[in-house]
Design brief:
Layout (H helix, E strand, L loop, with lengths): L6 E4 L5 E4 L11 H10 L30 H17 L10 E10 L4 E10 L5 E10 L9 E8 L26 H7 L1 H5 L3 E6 L26 H16 L5 E11 L1 H12 L3 E7 L22 H7 L23 H7 L3 E7 L7 H17 L6 E6 L7 H14 L20
Parallel strand pairs: 6-7, 6-8, 8-9, 9-10, 10-11
Antiparallel strand pairs: 1-2, 3-4, 4-5, 5-7
Helix pairs in contact: 5-6, 6-8, 8-9
Length: about 425
């Protein structure tokens, strides 16, 4: 008899239990525990319709959150709801991340220091992936420790792989067409302003296809019901585990950044890992910063929940499909993930004519998260920036992110606002 994937539940009492399918009753919750789960997480058919965006400042039982002291408990409650209905449950930090330098050198005529590091971690230290780190060469005002951007990439940085005799998997690893030198040039605006950059190939964490559970981190954690967005964001956190051990990083100034589906993963990383002091998902659309309630056919257009579960089911857990055609039953929406970043710093850069993201869906999420940042006394920590153009992480987006970081993270005098919305008719 084939077992379905197990699901890990965090009870309202704070205790974890592992609930198996009926195929195996050994670890099935007790009757009282099952009642507790059902109360905390009703089946989709039993959830009420909520046409309006669910209020992040109204907790269980209708309790209004009005003070900073109440926010941590409400934040944990929101995380449990999002995990149960949307993302699944990721494993805890492995606690054994190590790095081995396998390549190093100077780039950009000596202005950039580069190193490629292979991380190992997890059960029996059998998991791992490469990260590429770019540092400004120290001179003048550019001195370590540096604020550090962590970004998953759609491609692998070119390198001279080990021979197949020593590493049979080397020839099978996807290769990008990006040399370290060219990548250093792409990040020149950040590096020249005193930011370090750490990047990695996202599919090292889990393949971006329907067979994802056979790849990346998933085989090592068979009892967890997570999916790709959670795994890619978990990889970002493992980068921070390593970077925290290094003297060149400012440990109070980690920045999560990513674009498109990797913007979605960036949002998850920032919501669940409080070590990211600033979170910048760009062009992330539905399942990212764009509210489900304002995405998709009949709800504003562009990619919606139904499109995600049909075309990219690997991104989220299977039960998300239960909300197809009834998105108003979602007990949360994507403004909750933005709110989970508070009181840290958040900015969403986007293109006005992005064919994959909805202008209005992002604005709705932004507006609905504002009360949380305001209640916590940091309204300026929530930023948004639109530019002309389409679906890409454009130079204008990077300028906005870096200006926001200089102003809100580094305390620099940047004469720029990040709370201005263009007229509705300019958005598409």
């Amino acid at each position: 008899m084939k077992l379905l994937p197990t699901q890990k539940h965090l009870l309202p009492s704070g205790r974890f239990i592992i609930g198996l399918t009926l195929a195996s009753m050994l670890l099935w919750p007790t009757a009282s525990e099952a009642d507790e789960i059902a109360t905390a997480f009703p089946a989709v058919k039993d959830l009420p319709l909520q046409a309006a965006m669910p209020d992040p400042l109204i907790g269980s039982g209708g309790k209004k959150i009005t003070t900073v002291a109440q926010w941590p408990a409400r934040r944990e409650e929101m995380k449990r709801i999002i995990e149960h209905y949307g993302l699944g449950h990721a494993p805890p930090p492995p606690g054994n991340v190590k790095g081995k330098k396998v390549e190093a050198g100077l780039l950009a005529e000596g202005k950039v220091s580069y190193r490629r590091v292979h991380l190992t971690f997890g059960p029996e230290e059998k998991l791992g992936f490469d990260i590429s780190i770019f540092l400004p060469a120290e001179s003048g005002s550019l001195k370590a420790p540096f604020p550090t951007i962590v970004q998953p990439l759609f491609w692998a940085i070119d390198k001279n792989p080990p021979s197949s005799e020593n590493n049979p998997a080397a020839e099978q690893k996807p290769q990008g067409n990006h040399s370290p030198e060219s990548v250093a040039q792409q990040y020149a605006p950040a590096l020249s302003r005193g930011y370090a950059v750490a990047v990695f190939f996202y599919q090292d964490c889990g393949a971006d296809n329907r067979d994802y559970r056979q790849t990346g981190f998933f085989p090592a954690y068979p009892d967890y019901d997570w999916a790709d967005l959670a795994a890619w964001s978990w990889g970002m956190s493992r980068c921070v585990d390593y970077l925290e051990q290094q003297g060149f990083t400012d440990k109070s100034k980690f920045i999560a950044a990513g674009h498109s589906r990797l913007g979605k993963a960036t949002l998850v990383a920032g919501a669940f890992d409080e070590r990211f002091a600033l979170v910048a998902p760009a062009g992330s659309g539905c399942g990212g910063t764009g509210a489900y309630r304002f995405n998709g056919q009949g709800r504003g257009g562009k990619e919606g929940l139904e499109d995600v579960v049909k075309n990219f089911p690997q991104w989220v857990i299977p039960s998300v499909a239960d909300f197809s055609g009834q998105v108003e039953k979602l007990p949360f929406d994507q403004h909750w993930l933005i709110s989970l970043v508070a009181p840290r710093r958040f900015i969403a850069p986007d293109g006005l004519s992005d064919n994959a993201t909805s202008f209005n869906a992002l604005v709705q999420s932004y507006q609905s998260a504002k009360p949380v940042f305001a209640m916590l006394g940091v309204p300026d920590h929530l930023g948004i920036n639109f530019r002309p153009g389409g679906h890409k992480f454009a130079p204008e987006d990077w300028t906005a992110v870096l200006d926001f970081a200089d102003q809100l993270l580094r305390g620099m005098d940047v004469k720029r606002r990040f709370d201005e919305l263009p007229p509705q008719e300019q958005g598409h």
